[in-house]
Amino acid sequence: MNYKPFLYALLGLIVLLGMLRAFRSSRTVTAAQEEAVILKLKLASGPMGSEEERTIIAALEQRIENAIKRSSVGDLDGDEYGDGYCTIYTYGPSSEKLFTAIKPVLNGFHASSGSYALKRHGKPGSKQDRIPLDTE
C-alpha cells in the first residue's frame, strides 16, 4: 500500500491548521491592547468595603456583564478592592460602545460621592475621559 498520498494530505492539513492558528492569533486583541471602561466605586466602609457593599457591587457587576454580553461590545474582566475603592474592569474594541452599553445599569446604581468611570480610548497610557458617577 502506498502511504505517500496519505502523508502529503496529513502534512498539508498540519500546515493549514498552523496557518489558521497564526491568522487567528494575529487578530486576537488582548485586554492591554483594547479600549476600556474602568469603574472606580468609592466604598463607604473602609478600604475593602462592608459585606453589604460587596454584595451590592457583585449584583451590579452581574448586571454590567449581562448588558455587555447583550450588546456584544466586550467583556467584564473582573474587579479589585482596596484603598477605599472597588475597581471594575471592562474591555472591548470601543470604550464609547462599552460605556453606552453599561450606562443604563450605572444610572440605576447609587454610587457614593467620589465614584467615577474612566473611558480609555486605546491601550494603557492613551487618552482617558473621567465621568463622575456619584449621585450625591
Provide key terms for this protein.
136 residues, alpha+beta, Alpha-Beta Plaits, 2 domains, five-stranded antiparallel sheet, 43% helix, elongated
Explain what you see:
The chain is α+β, with helices and mostly antiparallel strands. It has two domains: 1-30, no CATH class; 35-132, Alpha-Beta Plaits, CATH 3.30.70. It contains three helices and five strands, in the order H-E-H-E-E-H-E-E. The chain has a five-stranded antiparallel β-sheet with strand order 2-3-1-4-5, with helices on one face. Helix 2 (51-71) crosses helix 3 (95-107). Mean pLDDT is 85; it is low at 23-29.
Question: What's a quick, concise take on this entry?
Answer:
With 136 residues, the chain is an alpha+beta fold. Helix content is 43%, strand content 25%.
- Report the average pLDDT across residues: 85
Structural class: alpha+beta
Count of separate DSSP helical elements: 3
Shape summary: elongated
Largest sheet: 5 strands, antiparallel
Q: Give the CATH topology of the largest domain.
A: Alpha-Beta Plaits
CATH fourth-tier homologous superfamily of the largest domain: Nucleotide cyclase, GGDEF domain
Percent strand: 25-35%
- Assigned CATH class of the largest domain: Alpha Beta
Element pattern in H and E:
HEHEEHEE
**What is the architecture of the largest domain at the second tier of CATH?**
2-Layer Sandwich
Helix content: 40-55%
Integer tally of domains: 2
Q: Give the strand order, joined by hyphens, for the main sheet.
A: 2-3-1-4-5
